[in-house]
Write a structure and sequence with these properties.
Catalyzes the reduction of dTDP-6-deoxy-L-lyxo-4-hexulose to yield dTDP-L-rhamnose. Pfam families: RmlD_sub_bind. Belongs to the dTDP-4-dehydrorhamnose reductase family. The protein is of the alpha/beta class. The chain has a single domain, classed as NAD(P)-binding Rossmann-like Domain (Rossmann fold), CATH 3.40.50.720. It contains ten helices and ten strands. A four-stranded parallel sheet has the order 1-2-3-8, sandwiched between helices. The protein has a two-stranded parallel ribbon with strand order 4-7. It has a two-stranded parallel sheet with strand order 5-10. The longest helix is centred in the first third of the chain and has 21 residues.
């Protein structure tokens, strides 16, 4: 999902983009990663590969760790060897959600689920490799080219007409188009390090669902509920809102509000 818009974003800027599928490159294999790097000699590598099944990671942590931890390590090592810059996309789920205010880039991670632990392992591996890198933490992605919360809500709204959505988890919905633009601008700055890159403004999943149905003009019986009403294998942080500082100070702007992003995404689905 992110790879589609990231590829489009860089191509529209005139860059030569080599977009490799998982069949063309398994990032968990160091020799394969090194071979690709030596073949293409890129100046910038953006890792859009990830194991994103949050609940599935509880039962298959090894797989999550291979893709989200070892894969970024392999990319970071190979990038250093060819003097390429790496952009590693990470997640709000590295935080435990216990804070009542947004998380800053230097707040200590403390993931509460296996997925979050695997992504935090990947962040540390990238930093330890010794090359040049950006870590772009983001959250609650929606966009074309993959399943997402927006599409799920639209489908359930059509099928059921009545839906309960949790109202005690708060984060930042983020459109892959806006994330790709910000990452492209960030990668041009030379200001390496960790950044929080999301659309502006917090929301609960219930807030997000209500906005989806309103923007789509759908009448759905939407009811808020607590997380405890929907037990899942993986815990979710109650608050994973990310503080963007110093993103604006680095690229000159913040991505627009998520409500605006949602309307633009829905207009593309029509």
């Amino acid at each position: 999902m992110l790879g589609v818009d990231m590829t489009d974003q860089f191509r529209c800027r005139g860059a030569e983009v080599i977009a490799l599928s998982r069949m063309e490159l398994d990032i968990t294999k160091l020799d394969a990663v090194r071979g690709v790097m030596r073949k293409y000699r890129p100046v910038l590598v953006i890792n859009c590969a990830a194991y994103t099944n949050v609940d599935g990671a509880e039962d298959d942590f090894q797989r999550a760790l291979l893709v989200n931890g070892l894969g970024p390590r392999n990319l970071a090592l190979a990038c250093r060897e060819v003097d390429a810059v790496l952009v590693q996309v990470s997640t709000d789920y590295i935080f435990d959600g216990s804070k009542s205010v947004p998380y800053g880039v230097f707040d200590p991670p403390s993931p509460v689920n296996a997925y979050g632990r695997s992504k935090w392992w990947g962040e540390q591996a990238v930093a330890a490799a010794g090359g040049r890198f950006y870590i772009a933490r983001t959250s609650w992605l929606f966009g074309r080219g993959g399943g997402n919360f927006v599409e799920t809500m639209l489908r359930l709204g059509r099928e059921k007409g009545a839906i309960r959505v949790v109202d005690d988890q708060r984060g930042c919905p983020t459109y892959t188009v806006d994330l790709a633009r910000a990452v492209a601008d960030l990668s041009a700055t030379g200001c390496y390090g960790v950044y929080h890159v999301t659309n502006s403004g917090p929301a609960t999943w219930y807030d997000f669902a209500a906005a989806i149905f309103a923007a789509a003009g759908m009448k759905v019986d939407l009811m808020p509920c607590a997380t405890a009403a929907f037990p899942r294998p993986a815990r979710r942080p109650a608050n994973s809102v990310l503080d963007p500082f110093p993103l604006r100070e680095t690229i000159g702007y913040l991505p627009p509000p998520w409500e605006d992003a949602l309307k633009r995404y829905l207009s593309r689905l029509e």
